[in-house]
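dumping this here before i forget
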Amino acid sequence: MAILSVRHVSRSFEGLVALNDVSIDVEPETIVGVIGPNGAGKTTLFNILTGFYRPTSGEVWFLDKRVDGLPMHKIAAAGISRTFQNIRLFSNMTAIENVLVGQHLHLGTNIATAVLRPPATTRAERRAVEQSAEHLRFAGLAGRENELARNLAYGEQRRLEIARALAVRPRLLLLDEPTAGMNAGESMAMMKLIRELRDDLQVTVILIEHQMRVVMGVCERISVLDYGEKIAEGTPSEVQRDQRVIEAYLGTGQLKRQDAGS
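structure:
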């Protein structure tokens, strides 16, 4: 049974159709890629899944519950978290402080407990710090807890975004171009981390990605968007052979050339 079901979703902006009748089912504990040229509707889809946009029509179901139309914090609390194409960290906060921001949904504190600080609040905050340190360790940032986010290397900042997303305790993690701007070695390390998210944490992953060696190397299924419509779906090898994908997205033969060079 699908953990996520996108059913005939469309989204328009003042007459411009960004998504048109898109349906995608995602099985639990899989790694799924969403690819397509710039302007194909990929980030719009992520924004709908996380509640930033509401679909013009269609439905989104997550864990057998309809979530389109819910506010963003309720969708996050339900178990959907994300990173962004452009890094969005609190640059003047430390790495562990950035991750602690993601813990707020689960702390259960309010103004009264923040002021009075009963023992339960102190214990909850201590657990949050311990869990945040563990998320950083998992993301490969052990020992960097007290480093300001702005002082981390670019690849480390990408990993910090993932650590913060893990603090939401997601069942489904959306990664928007996780290897953008990375060299080949950094991309390979990120691929390893993405596999570990699924294998070690049992997190389902959907990623938007332009590097074909990453898509073909880590994804088990791929959906292809073009001008807001889904034009293909299948395994990496099936998508590689799809003539509509080759012509509409990559140009004749380019997909195979990029994959061969990975």
